[in-house]
Design goal:
mainly alpha, two-stranded antiparallel ribbon, 2 strands, RDD family protein, membrane
Length: about 170
């Protein structure tokens, strides 16, 4: 009795598609909206400063005063609470089991290392702080995504991460 050997059918592993500029920008807008919205509750709850009492009607009542808008934005965004909240939001969520912020998760994006595995907290910190280098040359580090095979931005290269779609 002669046996014939039939090789098993080849398994084709689905290759990960990388996150494009549009999806990553929309995820950024979702994350920024959530951060500013939640931060405004924190800021209004802990501050007694006069700038916190302004409403949009008060700001635009006598025309736009650039000095008041600048003071308001300085109070909102150059506050240590916002910087810490921003840092914790991105680093904790990128290194979490979901591997994504709320905006990225909503669009089906994940942040992984080059092997497709979850990044740790140190790598998430490196990714967060290396975004400064993406900003410095006129935000050209973000546009690097348009010319790379893995759709990586400069901070992705520096931290050895990729953004993939599920």
């Amino acid at each position: 009795m002669q046996r014939t050997f039939t090789p098993p059918a080849p398994t084709v592993k689905k290759s990960a598609l990388y996150g494009n500029l549009t999806a990553r920008f929309i995820a950024f807008l979702v994350d920024t909206t959530l951060l500013v919205f939640s931060y405004s509750f924190v800021l209004y709850g802990i501050s007694d400063a006069q700038q916190q009492v302004y409403t949009w009607q008060d700001i635009f009542q006598n025309g736009v005063n650039v000095n008041e808008l600048f003071a308001l934005s300085k109070t909102l965004f150059l506050n240590p609470y916002f910087i810490i909240m921003h840092w914790l939001y991105f680093t904790l969520l990128h290194s979490s089991p979901k591997q994504a912020t709320i905006g990225k998760f909503t669009l089906g994006l994940r942040v992984t290392d080059l092997r497709g595995k979850r990044i740790n907290f140190a790598q998430a910190n490196l990714r967060y702080f290396s975004k400064i280098f993406s900003l410095i040359p006129l935000c050209l580090g973000f546009l690097l995504l348009l010319s790379t095979r893995r759709k990586q931005m400069l901070h992705d290269y520096l931290s050895r991460t990729v953004v993939v779609t599920d």
